[in-house]
Amino acid sequence: xxxxxLLENDRGGQIVLLVLLALLVVVPLLSLGVSDTSVxxxxxxxxxxxxxxxxxxLLALSLDLIWGYCGILSLGHGAFFALGGYCMGMYLMxxxxxxxxxxxxxxxxxxxxxxxxxxxxxxxxxxxxxxxxLMVVLVPGLLALVFGWLAFRSxxxxxxxxxxxxxxxxxxxxxxFRNEAGFGGNNGLTDFKxxxxxxxxxxxxxxxxxxxxxxxxMLGYLLCRLVVTSRLGRVIVAIRDAESRTRFSGYQVEHxxxxxxxxxxxxxxxxxxxxxxxxxxxxxxxxxxxxxxxLVVWVAVGGRATLFGAIxxxxxxxxxxxxxxxxxxxxxxxxxxxxxxxxxxxxxxGLVGLAGQRKWRRTPxxxxxxLPQQQEYAS
Amino acid sequence: MDIVLQQLxxxxxxGSVYGLIAVGYTMVYGIIGMINFAHGDVYMVxxxxxxxxxxxxxxxxxxxxxxxxxxxxxxxxxxxxxYGWTIERVAYRPLRNSTRLAPLISAIGMxxxxxxYVQIAQGARSQxxxxxxxxxxxxxxxxxxxxLTYMKVFILVAAFSGMGILxxxxxxxxxxxxxxxxxxDRKMASILGINTDRIISYVFVIGAAMAALAGVLxxxxxxxxxxxxxxxxxxxxxxxxxxxxxxxxxGAMLGGVILGLAESLFSGLVNTDYKDVFAFGLLVTILIFxxxxxxxxxxxxxx
Lengths: 379, 303
Description:
Chain A: InterPro entries: ABC_transp_permease, ABC_transptr_urea_perm_UrtC, LivM-like. The complex is a heterodimer. Chain A is mainly α. Helices cover 68% and strands 2% of the residues of chain A. Chain A has one domain. In chain A, a hairpin with a 2-residue loop joins strand 2 (194-195) and strand 3 (198-199). In chain B, strand 2 and strand 3 form a beta hairpin. In chain B, helix 1 (2-32) crosses helix 9 (229-244) and helix 2 (39-59) packs across helix 9.
């Protein structure tokens, strides 16, 4: 019932969820059910690649929620993703136990290497899965809460907010690079052995993680839909379009923004936590401002304020990236840059705008998401 | 005591260069309201042009310092200015009437293109230039001393002259008046007969020229650079522009100097490794208490 109500007037969302459902059935079948020699066999490499895209899509979704619907352009959203990833990484590190190179049952290898004799306090508890999972949402959420509370309360908006989010992720990048921060420094956390007792490298575990990623993305999508179609969502769009007017109408603008920012950070954290066991490493590079900028581009290329556009953008840009890197390793960034310029020049509404343009010609009323779209507002 | 003075002097040099680059961000933001993400990479391009001009001059056997520095500055500024003009023409002007988001993305694309163009054309390894100006100025204060290489003295003089010339152009000349008019109200300015498209082009050229000045100075001082130098210094300069209040020209210069001073003092007195963390921490703190920067005017919104 609820799902039906959420997906009403959301053709794009229906398609996305159907595709995800299909992936949920087809991918495990083709990977495990078909023999290695068949042309239909899907290699573990490709399953992991798809899983990675799914995590990126969830991340893009979380950004679209605040940027597309509330006009908060965060240029540091990768920080929440990376924090979620580090929480998961810490759990996986603790699971290695005494199977590390140094065989220390208590300390991860890099700490033994640095001659540390005990675990730092913030590493305690991460040997328990439930605790780590709690931290995956709590750590990014708490950071977003403190940061957002300070920023929104002082009415830091627009480009100023963008730059301080970028400063935030850059500062975290530099901190996590330090060896004494206790997160493995430059190398980050890697060489994971198992998750919940299942070996991380095994095909079946990979499929399990893939399924978890699909489910997380589907639930994330429905949750975002629930937010933006509710009355709360209407207030949020009103804040995007005319912040002061909403404030004068008696709404506590800061509370709405803060609430949405925290929710978005938590979604990003979950995406990061699913990402790490699939790629097998988390290092400070994930905090790099360039990653966050790329994330903005996924959403912009896909089409802002549509939710499903963010998912389409994350998939298509990352697919293009993978394709180009393998084809012309030297020129891929060059091509990516050209892609951004060309898409903005010729597809101002993003990829989903392509489909939308044709639809609008027939029925001018049918906006993409069922919500009022505004042509121009602060970037 | 002398360590504080030494770091103050170092910070002033660093800050004046940040200020030069910040000018490009702040002027572009003031006039068309976009963050020119490719600006840091324009700076990076100017570092390469500096090295090429230097190599050409030494190939022709010109070694006298005043001639070399004059030619390097002149040629680098002109060529980088052409880059600035071209970027605006190709990537931003066609998007003038589209959403505000569009030029932002095309700027990110432009930045990637410049980085990779340079990487492919010049190689990924870091490049170097020889030292042009040797020697150190040493001032005794009490029982300690403050020392300053001649190159740093040159940077200070050149950077502050550059800012002086720019302030003069913006405040006193007809071109400057047209720039200010376009910044205040683009539509009205064009009704009054100002070719605003051309003014916007000039602003990009001026920004690129300032970045080129910074590029020459930093390249001659540090001696080495690679295709990625534009990013970090771009982020810092942008921070400086926001710190001073984006859109405000004196703000950009002030922001640059404050950021440079804060960074040097922190690295000299507390910890070098966390100097960037401190710089960004400072930015966050200032913005929380003064959301529109030090000299920026709060945006007035009609409701």
